[in-house]
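INTERNAL AUDIT FORM
Audit reference: QA-55
Scope: verify that the stored structure record matches its stored sequence.
Auditor: D.O.
Record contents follow.
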Amino acid sequence: MSEKKVRLLIIDDENIVHKSCNRILRGTRFEITNAYSGEEGLELIAQNPYDLVLTDLMMPGISGMEVLNRLIKERPEIIVIVFTGFATVDSAREALKKGAFDYIPKPFTPKELCDVLDNAVNERAERSGQNTMDLMAVVSHDLQSPIAVVHSSAETLHRGYFGHLEPKQQKALESILRNCEYLEDIIRSHIEFSKMDLENMASYKEKVNLVEEVLNPVLENPEYTNNLKKIRIETEFSGEPVVHADPNLLKIVVLNLLTNAIKYGRENTELKIRLEEKEKEVLISFRNEGVGMTQEQIKEKLFQKHSRLKQKGTEGVKGNGLGLFICKNIIEKHQGRIWAESEVGQWAEFSFILPKK
């Protein structure tokens, strides 16, 4: 598979600069367009999409600084790099303050040019990824309310509050409910994921009572206590331990594990949630009765991004493969550990440990 081309516009009034750049970048991932003035550069930008713009600061007519100002205002998605000579070092610093990504000195070496451009490509990829996450969060929020209304209405009908339903009608409603749960799972996971900076989470200073501030607020939701599978939720909490944590992130973990335990549990069985306080750590576990998992599946599939188990007994269950991945990242950022144990055809138990500080 060929590497995706990066569209680069070089704006400079010196022909030798264009020749040097084209020679150095020949055969690389850059697709180069040359402009010999600020006016020509802005004209090309108005007509074509570019990923990067490399512009000289000192040019007759429209200067590189004016080009930068226009792009920051009108085309902020384009990464701008400036050329600078000895006489324009101060201008280069000013360009950086205004939003230029970096500068390249004149004269420059092939390595100097390539290093700055590679860094710019990486920066653009990161920005693009964040923009995608932001859009995903907005769309998910917009979908959340109408899906909840459909789910609630379908559940009301399914429970027979508006009269008896024929078996075929019940079956159709069950299909609607399963798909609502699937969509709500996707929406919740996308919203949670979009809020998480997995690489730069701050340290956790807040003291959190795990029972009062994390477990009970989730478990008190009637959606889980009155689930359609009639799974009984039993709790066994030894104490009310306090940890240093982010309560909202821990609620995400509890919500995901609880939802999965119900989703993959057998009807009319018991789901046991246990909290055990130890000397230096706290253990929380969720154990259900259901199809279970093999050791190979636990080792190779669980907690991976967009990874889902496909096994007999879960054919009608849908998911997006983000929930456990999110849980793992949250627990590990709290210096904890999360794992799963299971007996195929019998039970599955997900547990996590958090340190007491």
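Auditor finding: record pair retrieved intact. Residues 198-203 have pLDDT under 50 and may be disordered.
Action required: none
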